[in-house]
Amino acid sequence: MPLDPAQIETLSGISTATLTTVLLKKGLRNVWMRGTKPLRAGQPRIVGPAFTLRFVPAREDLATPASWASPTSTRAAIEAMPEGVVAVVDAMGIEDAGIFGDILCGRMQKRGVAALITDGVVRDAAGVLQTGLPVWCNGVAAPPSVAGLTFVGWQQPIGCGGVAVFPDDVVVTDDDGAVVIPAAFLGEVLAEAPEQERAEAWIMKQVEAGAALPGLYPMNAETKARYEQAKEDGEA
Amino acid sequence: MPLDPAQIETLSGISTATLTTVLLKKGLRNVWMRGTKPLRAGQPRIVGPAFTLRFVPAREDLATPASWASPTSTRAAIEAMPEGVVAVVDAMGIEDAGIFGDILCGRMQKRGVAALITDGVVRDAAGVLQTGLPVWCNGVAAPPSVAGLTFVGWQQPIGCGGVAVFPDDVVVTDDDGAVVIPAAFLGEVLAEAPEQERAEAWIMKQVEAGAALPGLYPMNAETKARYEQAKEDGEA
Amino acid sequence: MPLDPAQIETLSGISTATLTTVLLKKGLRNVWMRGTKPLRAGQPRIVGPAFTLRFVPAREDLATPASWASPTSTRAAIEAMPEGVVAVVDAMGIEDAGIFGDILCGRMQKRGVAALITDGVVRDAAGVLQTGLPVWCNGVAAPPSVAGLTFVGWQQPIGCGGVAVFPDDVVVTDDDGAVVIPAAFLGEVLAEAPEQERAEAWIMKQVEAGAALPGLYPMNAETKARYEQAKEDGEA
Amino acid sequence: MPLDPAQIETLSGISTATLTTVLLKKGLRNVWMRGTKPLRAGQPRIVGPAFTLRFVPAREDLATPASWASPTSTRAAIEAMPEGVVAVVDAMGIEDAGIFGDILCGRMQKRGVAALITDGVVRDAAGVLQTGLPVWCNGVAAPPSVAGLTFVGWQQPIGCGGVAVFPDDVVVTDDDGAVVIPAAFLGEVLAEAPEQERAEAWIMKQVEAGAALPGLYPMNAETKARYEQAKEDGEA
Amino acid sequence: MPLDPAQIETLSGISTATLTTVLLKKGLRNVWMRGTKPLRAGQPRIVGPAFTLRFVPAREDLATPASWASPTSTRAAIEAMPEGVVAVVDAMGIEDAGIFGDILCGRMQKRGVAALITDGVVRDAAGVLQTGLPVWCNGVAAPPSVAGLTFVGWQQPIGCGGVAVFPDDVVVTDDDGAVVIPAAFLGEVLAEAPEQERAEAWIMKQVEAGAALPGLYPMNAETKARYEQAKEDGEA
Amino acid sequence: MPLDPAQIETLSGISTATLTTVLLKKGLRNVWMRGTKPLRAGQPRIVGPAFTLRFVPAREDLATPASWASPTSTRAAIEAMPEGVVAVVDAMGIEDAGIFGDILCGRMQKRGVAALITDGVVRDAAGVLQTGLPVWCNGVAAPPSVAGLTFVGWQQPIGCGGVAVFPDDVVVTDDDGAVVIPAAFLGEVLAEAPEQERAEAWIMKQVEAGAALPGLYPMNAETKARYEQAKEDGEA
């Protein structure tokens, strides 16, 4: 289920902070993936459908360099990724084996993958940064994936940073990390989030102008009226 | 791949401690599931093929009491379990939502499931104990699974307590916890473990008789000769 | 707000597992206190209003044996406890300093305190057990509270095991641990939980009689009809 | 108890490293708040009296966007902060819900709050940085406070990063994090810390000149004499 | 430095809770080893000089079954233990490799070792219990030590459960765990602890008789006078 | 055992990622030290023999500023360090006491120490950075070592970040952290790692040119032939 360009443009204007507020109001408190941070400061906000990958712990007979040539390998998974997807990798939070290095990230970049998100870590950080692929991860480690992880498949339901992610859920990332919008909630989020973002921007301006918080944030009836007026006047 | 009765009988005579030693000598250091302990003291040693279940984290729209009636539910998984299997449940180590209570454990017991192993916890501990199902778990918690977990399927590769478990691997449990014997290693383990167990029993007798450790454990050449003689004499 | 005897009797018949299910259906997923377990096997189910105590970390100038004589001491807090309350102590999960030993627990028992719940630990476990006070805690440790904790007050909102507890919330404990029923939800819980408990007991009987899970748990329309009939017939 | 400008100036010349050494010599080993780091590199050293805020865990009925309008809200707490205070927020180390975003930090900046310190995290990191408020925290997260936290009050004793903080204790922050000077120790610290800082600076110069450590750091009698002479000569 | 029988007898009458209180009054807050608990309920209180053992993490080339025959092996360490010592083993808190099983514990028991204390775990729990050696540990695990640990020596300073232990420090254990009395403090502890224990026993009797805590614990001047009288009267 | 300049030059051209791959193929999966990161971005790759230091937990009677003048002090250890060594410090992962500050790091820099590696933290980060000593550590903290650590010796086997390190093992560090090459494996690593690095660089070029991963990484027979040809042609 690819996103259409208008959807991507809309979501690219919404912070992950605002998205979590909108989803919480719908009863979803657990949509922000713990422990995944931008690998490089200033990466752009990314929006795309989730393409999931799954690891289980390493067993020495299975997690070997030889396994990299198997049909169920991370290599095969990468070749299956359509352009524009966000690869979301369940590494069970393991921090002492890098899921991918420069070669695999370089290939993802070539294939037009929008970003890589994992609750694990990458290796050869210097090389990964050179590929230009936007990466959100839990840090870096030198050892290869097979030192701690066995790859078992793609496009299955996964957990990533304590959050359930299903193929085709929508993922949005920025400096605050990565948030999943469940596919079934996409329409509502697209409808409501821009207004939330707009209201908070107007509130921030009032704060900059010296306004006190009570009655402003959240808005009471009087503030709401002022805000509606500002919108009419093209000032919000 | 059911185990035959002779295989079960042989493995029932081997401690999980000995099994881990035998597997380590073959290069497998990561076969003991962390954080899963007998729910009741004195549970018998259990041997059986793994039947795997998998959870991801809870998302409020999916992890609901209503989901218990879905085709991909723990209920359906239990009805798919053949007699004699050991159910191994990947709960990602989550300790604040019980995967099963008395009703599900009672049904597993009725179906002839040999044991339940999880790196998560069970709920309604008093009721679970009454069902008589042997359980190895990480403790108990009152909340239902949906408070923290979303069920996603069965008979897939899983991680349990930091160990990879594949359907039809063999699981053995005792007071020291639960060990997985990868299916491909079963033959070797059946061939070698009984001798290891026998040698350690003979060594223990020497210790009880006052022998010092150096040269005895591990055995040097002289001790080995004495042990071989003892075997011939029917004393080991 | 003391509980009346009928309320206590009703709740004494409901497991904490059932209470968490009832509260989850009302949107409350976080009511079970993590890390607090029965100090002694087989303690009775306890029901009572929360009487809260609060610690912050130790600072060597404040957390001293001399502080035990101060007006804001654990001693003063205990003397303020009415009969029948459940003392709930926020120890921030600290496991290396015992909040109370035999003397303080003995005094609580004398005052008719119903139980002590903490996400911390007690000290002088042998002595505490002798007092007969029912205790749910996170283990035992020899050092006194002042080795790690500074006491700061009572009957304030606290966190205990990752759960918010307010004075006069109702606490219920059993082998699965301790659950808080927010005061505002008490009426609904009293109204609905007994039926939930009754239904689960009837389901368990069907399982014991060999029934399969799908359609039974949760009940489909046909099963519901059978259950309603059983109730009419006095068989559920 | 506001600090006078001379006190602030003196403490602004002392590193938190030196402050912890001075306090340790007085028996206080636990004054540095764990897990709180500068949000932006190169933030200036900040000195001010602590203004404390306190959260407990989230309960879905209480921790709602609606609660932000309650009289016991973070908004009310911020409006109560005098100019020059350091806001110290007990978030129990929770890392998956941001205590404040750009709007609340913007308001604190407007009110002349000197800095924000928390063992929790902030949200909308990009926006918070734009407000210019100096922040020490445990990272960033997108979700709002109510996803994990319930606000319960201000100017109470709190724990922050495993350290007890009381209103009007003095807080000093720099690149090494945040240290609390208990109010009762302020006089002694002001009297002794500058000399400690001066001595260490002189020692560092000797190291740069090639001196070996034994006898230099800590100083033996001969070195002490040289140092005293250097002070007389205006060279230390 | 063996303890003399009178010292052992005196300390055998003092709980570890009381010992930590006495040591805290002398400025030692960190003497109780975290994470080590009785392997069997009801083990007697043990007193003895520490005999230390030290592990570092496993490296596959060193941590092998073959290493068990090396001169720097756990076997050699055990043969070097004098009668009456308490073996204290630094396993860095590792919980997935058992430091010793039945054979090594059996040999320690034969050699008259008073007890085994570790912040790690033992293996073959059933076998270890049969040897009769009193053990305090952090749980049980099936894998052998070499699955996670490399043995490096004995009678060196170690950390155990976050506490520094030096050879010939005195260790006391009971249901609350294990406490180290630094060798230099032994005289003072022997002189003061019995009186502390006696006073607390008298206070407990007052509590049982219904006395309130303020003024009693800690004792105010009036209570102290009553206690002194009780001692004279042979009633304390 | 100093390294010769040619060995240092060779290893300076190999990433720690490649070293872990080479060592894993020899059965060593645990050679990368967890939790130690560059203190400053862009530090050069460092190669040198390990010079080990060891701490145990703090005990208030031993871990005092006075102890800094003892013969078994960190000061004495630093004066014993030969030029070119990499100091590797076992701080047991403790994050709330800085092992060294500017003065000790300045002295190490003066003595020609190549780098400081620890699983603990440093203090006075600003001052340490000014010394120019390359540091890999687990963060920064203001308190002095004696707030949490007791120094016990140097050039002993240690654990650092969950890895065994022996004096004269070789340590290599870069942006991915620090890896130990056991002394016995140095020859093999020097012989094989450069070819591994060369092959991966050639593969990366193919990826940049648009090649797909299967058959390329790892190389199948055809790719291997192409690579060998490229080497002959001076293009790899």
Automatic annotation (TrEMBL), chains A, B, C, D, E, F:
SUPFAM superfamilies: RraA-like. It comes from the Bacteria. Transmembrane segments: none annotated. This is Ribonuclease activity regulator RraA. It comes from Labrys miyagiensis.
